[in-house]
Each structure stands twice: as structure tokens, then as C-alpha cells.
Amino acid sequence: MFREPWEAQAFALVVQLHQRGLFTWKEWADTLSAEIRAVGERGEADTGSDYYHHWLAALERLLAAKQLTDAAQLGARREQLLAEWPSGHDHVARREPVRVA
């Protein structure tokens, strides 16, 4: 089901935040769907291999929309993850950050 350990962690994080009542499953599904749709609207190829990158982008967007975090906190966490992750996995945190309005 997961190609990399970080994908399982991202999945579990969304489930835990939902279980804590920070968002409904419908809010999550709508946000993830919008993120995937936006990729297509930008004309980016989507082979399915980037699914959990979309998952993370949707999570960032939802947390920002609910004012549970901001761009500075997300950036700081991304840098912390880069410092902690074994070499070869930094492609996840190095992806283009979500722009939070």
C-alpha cells in the first residue's frame, strides 16, 4: 500500500488529526480532491506516483485554512524533517511548498 515509510506516516497523521476532531472526513476528501484537480488544471503530469505528495499538500492547505498552522511553521517543520530524514528521502520535504494566502 505504501512505497515509502513517510507515506504511511502522512496517512496516519491525517487519520489521527481527523480522529481528534480537527476536520471532518468530508473536509479532508474535498481538500485532497481539490489538490489533485489543481495538478491537472496546471497541466502537470500525474502518473499516480505523486499521490502522497498531493496528500501532504492537501494536509498543509487544510491546516492553514483552519488556522492550525501557518507558512512559517510549515517551513520550519519541513526543514526539521530534512535534518532528521535519512539521505535519499529529502525529496519529500524539498518539494515546492504550498502557498498559504
Order of helices and strands: HHHHH
**Quantity of strands, as a count:** 0
Largest sheet composition: none
Distance between the amino and carboxyl termini: 33 Å
Poorly predicted regions are 97-101
Give the helix tally. 5
Q: Into which percent range does the helicity of residues fall?
A: 55-70%
Strand content: under 5%
Q: What kind of assembly state do the chains in view correspond to?
A: single chain
Describe this structure in words.
The chain has 101 residues and is mainly alpha-helical. It has a domain at 25-93. The chain has helices at residues 5-19, 25-41, 51-65, 71-84, 90-93. Helix 1 runs parallel beside helix 3 (51-65) and helix 2 crosses helix 3. Residues 97-101 have low confidence and may be disordered.
Task: Please sum up the structure shown.
The protein is mainly α. 64% of the residues lie in helices and 0% in strands.
Keywords, please?
disordered C terminus; 101 residues; mainly alpha; single chain
